[in-house]
Amino acid sequence: MEYTQNEVLQYVKDNDVRFIKLFFTDIFGRIRSLNIQPVELPQAFKTGIPFDASLSEGFLNMTYSDLFVVPDPNTLCVLPWRPQQGRVVRFFCNIRYPDGSLFEGDTRSMLANAVKDAEKAGYECLFGTKCEFYLFKRDLDGRATREPHDFAGYCDLAPLDAGENIRREICLTLSKMGIEPLRSYHEAGPGQHEVDFRSACGVDAADNVNTFKTVVRTVAANSGLFASFLPMPVEDAIGSGFYVNLAIKKDGKNLFEGGTLSETGGAFVAGVLNRVVEIAAFLNPLPSSYKRLGHNDAPLSVSWTRQNHIGQLIRIPFPAGEEEHIEVRAADPSCNPYLAITLLLRAGLEGIENKESIIPAAEDLRSEASWTFGTLPSTLEAARKVAAKSKFVRSVLGDAIVKAYTETDAEEPEFGTV
Questions:
Q1: Rounded to whole angstroms, how far apart are CA atoms 155 and 161?
Q2: Which residue did the predictor score with more confidence, 189 or 261?
Q3: What's the pLDDT band for 56 if we cut at 50, 70, 90?
């Protein structure tokens, strides 16, 4: 839904809105929030609302304090879990300097610019996502424990699947917020779940991911549980992935029509495969991310397939009524979705521009020939070294973000926080 600023101001006035939450994302993908009163909203649209950027490394270790968050009127949304009298609404925001210029660490605007460049080149881009997460029990003091909510397996039913009602509540809440999930089910790990979304245009897709994470954490907390988006929260169990579906059209024709690759579609896939090692530090930003890669069905080889899930980095699934797309399976839920989609899109478009040739499909990763095109890095340290040397990464993200990702201490977040 597209709203003008005046329409938003009128909505707030007519619908008993008492509190406004301004969501913004740091470079590492952490969702932040400022709360304002409705009387401040006109000023927020005009100049933004200041926050102290020096208090977090997620804003490039600013030596001065103020940055400003400017709400996007198109992202107006009522938070359905809050009271309907004295309503609370949310906006996603872009980040600016005091003079109004764009902050180079605003990854949301970075994705918007990538989509605009694709459109200028004649490409229409749609992005779908699949996000896995774990549910854990809390102790009597409300702290997260390492005990999974259940021990069900892939697509199990209740009562083995103890999270069925929680997923239902997550999906109903998302629907109230204008986001329609495609499907949801219990994943293979104990207490592990997945929700898949319809394709969305541009920034909406990454906004939806952050909305989803907020909803999952809220519904889980209201149910006395903790939701984890760590890539490997349960040792030796299956890891959690964040899969990005890319549907690219040129002159109305899908590059992956019929689950096959046109010459241009092949060049797009080649571009992603040729850059995926360089961007791994951004798709997999935690030390534990590299425990997931190559474990169970998570990818490790730089490969693609038409159908097989097991271990493949890119696959071209059977359309099954959805927008025809490729599925990139390298990322995990700890990544910044704006950065991840930006890098994948830029890499694919570079492949088209350079008319890159795609490697042969690897339908069986047990074959040695399937590994001849290399593997993803085995550690975060190795991934960071490659990223630091990549001209492509620096051209897309800029020196400041690359430095922050490659030089910040590589510490695993404390369990119970992510």
A1: 8
A2: 189
A3: confident
What is d(CA 196, CA 398) in angstroms, rounded to the nearest whole number? 31
Q: Is 25 helix (H, G, I), strand (E, B) or coil?
A: strand
**Beta-bridge partners for 127:** 200, 246
Q: What pTM was estimated for this model as a whole?
A: 0.95
User: 4-41 burial, b for 16+ CB within 10 Å, e for fewer?
Assistant: eeeebbeebeeeebebbbbbbbbbbbbebebebeeeeb
Cis omega (within 30 of 0) on the bond before 159?
Answer: yes
What is residue 352's DSSP assignment?
A: H
- Measured CA to CA in angstroms, residue 30 lies from 165, 336, 404 at distances of 27, 8, 14
- The closest of 218, 221, 347 to 275, measured between CA atoms, is 347
Distance CA 117, CA 349 (A): 10
The whole-angstrom separation of Cα 263 and Cα 273 is 15
Give the span between the Cα atoms of 92 and 25, in whole angstroms: 9
d(CA 197, CA 134): 18
Q: Is the Cβ–Cβ distance between 96 and 68 less than 8 Å?
A: yes
Which amino acid appears at position 410 of this protein?
A: A
**What gap in Å lies between CA 261 and CA 265, rounded to an integer?**
5
List the helix and strand counts (H, then E) for the chain: 12, 17
Mind giving me the DSSP string for 266-334? HHHHHHHHHHTTTTHHHHS-STTHHHHTTSTT---BS-EESS--TT-SEE----TTSPP-EEE----TT
Q: What is the mean pLDDT of the chain?
A: 93
Quickly tell me which residue has 């881009």 as its tokens.
125
On whether the CB atoms of residues 245 and 128 are closer than 8 A, the answer is: yes
Res 20: pLDDT: 98
Residue 114, CA atoms < 13 Å, CB-side half-sphere: 28
How many whole angstroms separate alpha carbon 404 and alpha carbon 143?
31
CB atoms within 10 A of CB 124: 16
Residue 218: CB atoms within 10 A of its CB come to: 18
Is 65 a residue whose pLDDT tops 90? no
